[in-house]
Write a structure and sequence with these properties.
Blueprint (H helix, E strand, L loop, with lengths): L2 H13 L4 H13 L8 H14 L4 H24 L8
Length: 90
Amino acid sequence: MEVYEKTIRISRGLLGFIDLRELLVQQLVRAHLPPTPDANTASIALLQSWLAEDATDNPDDIQQAQAELDAFTQAINAERERAGARRIYP
């Protein structure tokens, strides 16, 4: 916490905006307990593990994946054109 932020919080405490005891408890908790994980931490870790599993340096795999992506985008665009909608993929 920056000195400026601490000064503002203490000033507010002295003026009655925040109880100084509450401020001290918050500081102690932050200093001695591990941070609480973000609500999305588990989901992000899972997605990152999937990306790591699927990662490849093999040129054949990369070429096949690119061909599958091209076929997918062409099929989506063709269906949208058939339905009179605008193309999604350039």
